[in-house]
Amino acid sequence: SDEVTIEPFANFAHYYEKEYKEYKNKKDKMLRDSISGRQKDSLAARKKDSAAVQK
Fold it and tell me: Backbone phi, then psi, for 2, in 5-degree steps?
């Protein structure tokens, strides 16, 4: 009868692990996107600066 009480919690933990992994993947992707966006911005800013210097 012990297994009966443990079983739902095992399923629960498994479900949450899956949810957490998906959440983490989404968060990581968002973080990567924002970082690459920032890098693009700074790259554009640098290009603008060098263009201003050349004039």
Answer: -60, -40
